[in-house]
Fold these 2 entries.
Entry 1:
Amino acid sequence: MATPPLPSSTSTTTSVLSTASSLADSLFQRSLDDLIKSLRSDPSSEPSIISRALSEIQREIRSSDPLTKSIALQKLTYLSSLHFHPMSFAAFHTLELLPSLSPQTKRLAYLAASLSFHPSTTDLLPLATHQLHKDLTSLSNPSSSPFLPSLALHLLSLASSADLSSHLAPDLVPLLSRSSPLQPKAVAATYRVLSLCPSTVPVLFKPLVDCLSSDNPLTVSAAVGAFCELSAAPNDPAPYLPLAPEIYRVLVNSRSNWTLIKALKIFSRLVPLEPRLGSRIVEPICKFLCESQAKSLVLECIKTVVTCLHTHTEAMRLAIDKIKELLSSDDDPNLRYLGLQTLGMLAPGHLWALEESREVVAQSLTDPDRSICHEALRVMMAMTLQENSIENCTLLVRQAAKSDPEFANEILDSVLSLCSKDFYELVVDFDWYVSLLGKMVRIVHCTKGDEISRQLVDIGLRVRDVRPELVRVARELLIDPSLLGNHFLYNVLSAAAWISGEYVEFSKDPMELVEALLQPRTSLLPTSARAVYIQSVFKVLTFSCNSYIDENSSLLNDTIIARMLSLIEMTVGPLAESEEAEVEDRVMNLLGVVRLVANIKDLSGDKDKDGMIYEVVRAMYDLFSDEMGPVSANAQKKISVPEDLDLKENLDDLSEFMSDNDTTMSRSNPSILFYPQSRNTSEEVEVGPSRVAESTSLEEHRKRHGLYYLSADKESAEPELTKDYPRVNETLPPSNGDTARRVKVTKPRPTVVKLDEGEDLAASSSLSTKVEVAKDDTLSGAIKEVLLGRKGNGASSGFDASSSSQGKGKDKVKGKEIKSKKSEDGESKDRHKGRRKHKHKKETMPPVSVAQETPVIQDFLL
Amino acid sequence: MIRFILLQNRQGKTRLAKYYVPLEDSEKHKVEYEVHRLVVNRDPKFTNFVEFRTHKVIYRRYAGLFFSMCVDITDNELAYLECIHLFVEILDHFFSNVCELDLVFNFHKVYLILDEFILAGELQETSKRAIIERMGELENIYFRAMRFAIVILHLVSKI
């Protein structure tokens, strides 16, 4: 990079001389102290002082005198970092001051640069390349201060871009290799450079690894820290496996707790890849657990043991003892919090340990500190199994009733998601669960109405045996007038209404239901809920009429039926004038039937089974008595269009009527039959317009009753639309046949039925993981090739790889193939020094390279 | 890795802000406001660790100042608590019974101290003695020149 023209060289003496000429300016230049004092003296006029100062600064910073400039820059830095004024206009001036010989000015310039430069906002950064280069290599010049490079290192690590890093990477190498106080800093800057720009790996990696074995403990610590960050998620820790022996040595020899913590972190990432490492590090870890005084180190040991050393029982036992100690420290909330956190980590494998600490966890739920409550909730979630689900969930819901709104909703959320996972796998006693859902609705701050209503309907559809209980809960919700005003709950209420309509045969008192569904306060409900209410009334009415005729119910005598009919007519009548089309539609249907059966009580005693009223009632009852399951949203797609069906025909007529407003279509175009529920669509098998009607009415229906459709994102495997129902009995759910777990259950768990799903979940998830595995990151690839090349031939293959990779490193599109080819290169050079044929081998690299690494470690470990 | 360090007083004014990850100015403002709100409402008896977006903030209150450090989720909290304490001890030693005003007027020196023992988000030096020694040397280099220039200025102005 060409050096930009900079102002003449400056030293302290010349600046003093030139001060004479700019004396006037300097005398009146306010220093930083003055600025701060003026800001503090009058807080109310702060904006005006700041704007005045900014205009002064803008004037001063353009002067040619470096001292003035630097003081201006200092003031600007202050204003920028603490009062958020953008200082990008000063970027060029900052760069001008960077090369100044006076350490003070230089330092100010670097400070300003590191605080304000940003690869995305400053294009001028490349102009500083030469200066940074000079500063980084200034150690070779004996007259310059030994601390200059540290300034440059700071700037490099904070504000550099990938380009800058790749240019300056070679300058870092000498700093890394000589043991100076700067070495740890160089290591830290190196880590940043490496993560920004993987093409520098061949140049920088080897010196970095050498730092691991340096004499200076600070360097070692910095190097371990660098590797810890490099191997952190989301990066791939696999390339760092060959370094395991050296890090182990650090683990055993180092005295500094910081270093040990970092080394343990690296091991916790490497052990899952190479289990034999686990047996090596168990001893030092147990030693630390028993002897160390530092709580931070003990904590890190516990975390490492719990995450990756499951099979070593001794270590696990020690760790669990320590966790219990942490949990029981009453005076220090930090330790208790950490104890809960690590307890939660034990979850899948060692639930017995969590059970033992149940008391503490339950108590922590009531802690005033929100963080502790969260952790306790998480632990509770983790330790809930089928056996203790009832206990835990009851406890949690009770706690939710007592907590503040946010936490209560969080508890409800986790309970709902936990219990509904895998088709309600955890729930054994559905009666209890359904009543729990009812209780949740009553909690004052509950905002989870949507999820609760979804689950109520879902359970109703899947679990036959619980329907009586469900109807009971729904009845309680419907009767209560106070719930009608709560706008979070209208979803739940419409679900309750739907349930009581659908399963009315289980209810004890249909009249009560009708009264509840028609109470005056229902006018507070939104239209969609009201529509559901009215439809439920319809269903209850047909059921009642039918039972009245059959005379098989003691509750439904003449007076009651008459009352029901008159009540309906009275309350629903006015709604016939409603502006909402859906409500009006259903009301008309209902009123129509009511008027038809108005004289039903004349039938009592009359055994005339052929009368019109009788027929109407029977027909209506049959209509509602078939149980229909929900239809998958993709069901229509599954049907292949028959060849003689021409869907395009006749559609031109429709286009006149097509508009955004659904309701106009249903009223104005009589050729499209529209039923409130898709009951009769299964019966229609005519081809042509009615087929069109069927598909559009299906969509309409789906739009309006989206709540009751199963959301199917994935394609379903079955070819048939309406025949899915019989199939339901064949597919058995994953209900527990595992008798070993059912110790306390008094009645068998009802079967939970799977409806119209059968999506291949397995295939879709495997697809996504394949995509992730295919995405290789260039950094780990570059490191792999360096390490493998290094172990073989040493210098030569490393440099060859570096010269060619530096050219191609930036080309990430082809990166994967080139990487594997290059690592093949390195490896083939290891094995067959002369032969070049293997360069063009197919990509079978990854499994082979992993196999290569194991013998490498074995040599060192054994 | 440390993502940023903030020193804020009870009223929310930032006394020091050092970021180790690139952030826009407006984002910085938002972050500082959020961290302050998070931290100032907590009771002294609560834990010193709070979750913040997808990271953690480890904070401690010394007199009227909140020292907050934002670190990754997987980091060891107790170790960073020690780190904060080390920083405060060094400030105390350097400014002799430091108070908030010292930090306000000498903000560039505070940055110097901070840079000395944390680089690129990683803790470099854990020995208090070593840092203080180094600071002494640096102070001589950086601030002697300044003092010299100011002295000359005053002399010249008196002529």
Entry 2:
Amino acid sequence: MNRASKPDNRADRLIDALLDGDLSHSQAREALSSLHDDPRACQELGRLRFAVSKLRAPVDSPDLSESILSGVQSRRGFLQRKGRRMVTVGRVAVAAGVVAAVGLGSFVQRHAPEWRLDEPQPAPVSMMVRSSSLSPEEQPAVVDQAVETIRATLASPVSRLSLSPRFRPEQSLHFDTLRTETPLPGAAQSPPTALALGAPELQTLASLAASRTAAQPSDPAAVPNTTASPFIGRFGPLLVILRETPTTVESERSADED
Amino acid sequence: MDRARERKLLRRAAAGDRAAAEECIRAHQGQLYAYILRLCGRPDVAEDIVQEAFVRVLTNLDRFDDRYRFSTWIFTIARRLYVNAMQKLKPVYESEIVNAWQGGGGEPGAVMMRTEIGNNARDELQRVLQMLPEDQREVVVLFHQLDWTISQISEHMEMPEGTVKSHLHRGRKRLRALLEASEQGSERIGEVWR
């Protein structure tokens, strides 16, 4: 049975290859001549060709274009020539705008980098916090930069603060023990205000002032107008920011007097 | 229609040009209708599917990637619609007969006779095609009726080329056998009538 089916399989493969169009012209001719001796294969090929030819008969198809177009019209709509032109012009304008913006951006970046809007904004407080992790040599520069930034943003910047000769390290720090070279806004009308400083800052200020006092001659006249320390010079603007309300000042002052 | 012309037409249709859209429809509706009709065997369903496929495609032309052929896209959409439609549609032939009889449409025999006459009037090939398994029918129609290549059919039906060929060979043989059986049957009926 296997022997008998072998030639059939070969003939079937040839028929399939012929009908699939897998064979070249010469191969097809060769295949046909080899099938010529096999009447069963010839008959099979003829029948299959006949069946396939039926599939090639044209199908009467209705014209659906109008119903399709009305369906499209109801969902999306068609545009008149003028409308299409407007859409095209609009697209071109948007594309040109995008190209111009990109070109301008790259031009500015190349020729005027200081105009760039995406430059990082200065963050003085963060700079000062970061400065704590720096080496002692680097710290002053960073702190200076932060203070300069703050000073530049203040409405009435305090250029320098100095310790008054009346300042005593054992006292709590009051504004009236500090002198500013530039008067504070409203300083003439309102009484001096106390500063709200944390313990470490007060300690530093006190120790700095004490060392300064010790280093200077005992004559108080020689002391005024000297800068208390670079520390106060740097933190002057912050001291102003931290100024408390007059009511607090009054209560603290009365406590001091007691 | 060559690719360049097709692209130009589609661009115009996407911009809202009605005439371009109409030309696209006229270029493809015949083949698409023949394909769906051969698959489902019902002209009313084929019309609905073709219409819906074109409307969907033409309202979403801006999504069309013109690296591919428009025909591939619309045939894919139509095929999905056909699959969905076949899931919804139930065979109605038996119930048609019952309903017609219950509705006073005459004797059951008369109704059956009318149905038989209608069936005979239909395309013989169409009836034979409906007897083929779904995949074999689709491959045979795409290859022999629409002249698609094996690789196109493989991509369209999402199956390996070997499987497509296998469906094609089996489907073709079965189609031949069914057509011969149908013709023999017709001859016998003719002999009885004579």
